[in-house]
Amino acid sequence: MTDEEAYRYYNCRKWKSLRKKILARDHYECQRCIARIRSAAQTGETLKPADRHIRKAVCVHHIQEIKERPDLAYDEENLISLCHRCHDEVHHRSVDDFKQYRFTKRKPVMTEERW
Ligand SMILES: [Zn+2]
Ligand SMILES: [Zn+2]
């Protein structure tokens, strides 16, 4: 896929409506912020003040890149809502690190009761 094709892809109608759907599914909350705060709560790690709240999701990111998996381009399981900062970060760090978030994000926060 060339850059121009990728650009066209991102602007097509199908993508725009799917993007909205994913943001609504994730309640416009950055899923990586949620994962970061949750894991810090579990490990006792201290977060920087800017990292202590869930930022608003503005980007929909492909967990498996379109270039590598064009077949997953419209797969809702391959899409995740992110804030600007997290989106920048995932594009600058290893994909494997990010994949973990995918599998932890669906667990509801409130079910961690200890008996
Ligand atoms: Zn974020
Ligand atoms: Zn992305």
Give the topology, please.
Elements: H1 3-11, H2 13-25, H3 31-43, E1 59-62, E2 79-82, H4 84-90, H5 95-104
Antiparallel strand pairs: 1-2
This protein binds zinc ion (2 copies).
What would you note in describing this structure?
With 115 residues, the chain is mainly alpha-helical. The N and C termini lie far apart (52 Å). The C terminus is likely disordered. The chain has a two-stranded antiparallel ribbon. The longest helix is centred in the N-terminal third of the chain and has 13 residues. The chain has one domain. It is 45% helix and 7% strand. It is elongated and about 45 Å long. It is built from five helices and two strands, in the order αααββαα. One zinc ion binds next to helix 3 and helix 4.
Beta-strand content bin: 5-15%
Tell me the distance between the termini: 52 Å
Percent of residues in helical segments? 40-55%
Tell me the number of structural domains.
1
Q: Low-confidence runs (pLDDT<50, min 5 residues)?
A: 103-113
Main sheet specs: 2 strands, antiparallel
Distinct small molecules bound, one entry per kind = zinc ion
Elements, N to C (H/E) = HHHEEHH
Averaging pLDDT over every residue, what do you get? 83
* Number of separate helices: 5
Identify the strand order in the major beta sheet. Answer: 1-2
Q: How many strand elements?
A: 2
Q: Given the helix and strand composition, which structural class is it?
A: mainly alpha
Radius of gyration: 15 Å
Q: Based on Cα principal axes, name the global outline.
A: elongated
